[in-house]
Amino acid sequence: MTALGTLEDLPLEYRNGLTARNLVPLWPNLRAALPHNKPSRRTRPMLWRYEDIRPQLLEAGRLTPIEKAERRVLVLANPGLGLENMQATPSIYVGMQLILPGEVAPNHRHAPSAVRFVIEGKGGFTMVEGEKLPMEPGDLILTPSLLWHEHGHTGSGPVIWMDVLDLPVVYGLEASYALEGPSQQPRNEPDASQTRYRRSGLIPWSATTRTRADYPLVRFPWQEVRQALADLATVTPVGEAVRLAYVNPETGHECMPILGFSALLLRPGETLRLPRHSASSIINVVSGSGSAAIDSVELRFDAFDTVAVPTHAEVKLDNASSKHPAFLFVVDDAPMQRKLGFYEMFG
Ligand SMILES: [Fe+2]
Asked: Which of 44, 186, 281, 329 is the most buried (most CB within 10 A)?
């Protein structure tokens, strides 16, 4: 391989002349921008323990009233990317949000899209464009780009959920902004997951006669996902992943444009290698315990912990229990990479 010229190879006067004209020579920076074989990655394989996050979040509940926070969130920031940048991976923002009984996180909409994955508590709800969605532990709730959404809590005890956004992408494009609006009036109860999209393979007939809806289903109840994984496990050979993708029920395609969502069951004692791919991801542990080996880093996880996985990483998952399954929720940016034409899976 030919060694490329460095900045220092160039006469100072020439370099200063370039700088004065807002010009930069490519060749000293070429290998950094296009490294051979694998991208250079600043994202660290990381694990955030829920037992570390929870007390800090409850303390935030004491220190900061909701009116002073709007969204009371602690952000899981990857130190490799700079804490101030609030990125778990280059494309994925992750926050843990606390809402206390009677509190309201006011109605707004914004360019980045978000999902909520409920960690604990009962009585929380999210309203999306007038559709009121209950929030049970493990439920996935979509609040897509530019749709009105607000949160509330009519139960007792704290409600905590994980927010996952494509914020770093949209912010990086200088396209991130929000609008505030008056509180929504609920127009239906229960939500479409319990009324219109009850069974896979069945959709409202009217949906076949019109252009497919972008977001027909915005709540995926964990109860259904868990049962579907348990059923799939009975017909999946050991060594193959028991994994389900969350999709738009009308198109069968991924349910959000940038981020993709899946749920994985690690059977008792199971070890699983995930296919190495070009997407970055985060994993939240719904239940169980085990370890994730990410490239050369070994991380031990328990229920509700969150893991960050860099692009192109080798990932091996182990269920520590010989008796109980472990359930994992995975978010990656494969949908965006596919649309942009550079998604790769290496097997
Ligand atoms: Fe929001």
From this structure: 281
Which are the contacts of 71, defined by CB distance < 8 A and separation ≥ 6? 95, 97, 105, 163
Q: Which residues contact 129 (CB under 8 A, 6 or more apart)?
A: 147, 148, 149, 184
Cross-strand partners of 173: none
Instruction: Tell me the residue type at 230.
Output: A
Question: How far is it, in rounded angstroms, from Cα 282 to Cα 331?
Answer: 5
Q: Name the pLDDT band for 212 (thresholds 50, 70, 90).
A: confident
Q: How confident is the model at residue 1 (pLDDT cuts 50, 70, 90)?
A: low
Amino acid at 212: R
CATH number of the structural domain spanning residue 246: 2.60.120.10
Whole domain around residue 265: which residue ranges?
45-340
What spacing in Å lies between the alpha carbon of 275 and ligand 1's midpoint? Answer: 32
- Whether residue 126 is predicted with pLDDT greater than 90 in this model: the reply is yes
CB 304 within 8 A of CB 120: yes
Residue 30 domain flag: no
Tens digits of residue pLDDT in 4-53: 999 999 999 999 999 999 999 999 999 999 999 999 999 999 999 999 99
Tally of domains in the chain: 1
Q: Is residue 164 in a domain? A: yes
Span 247-286, pLDDT tens digits: 999 999 999 999 999 999 999 999 999 999 999 999 999 9
Q: How many CA atoms lie within 13 A of 299 on its CB side?
A: 23
| Contact yes or no for 190/122 (Cβ under 8 A) | no
As a whole number, the mean pLDDT across the chain is: 96
Q: How far is the CA of 245 from the centre of ligand 1 (A)?
A: 24
For ligand 1, the distance from its centroid to the CA atom of residue 276, given in whole angstroms, is 32
CA of 164 to the centre of ligand 1 (A): 10
Distance CA 339, CA 337 (A): 5
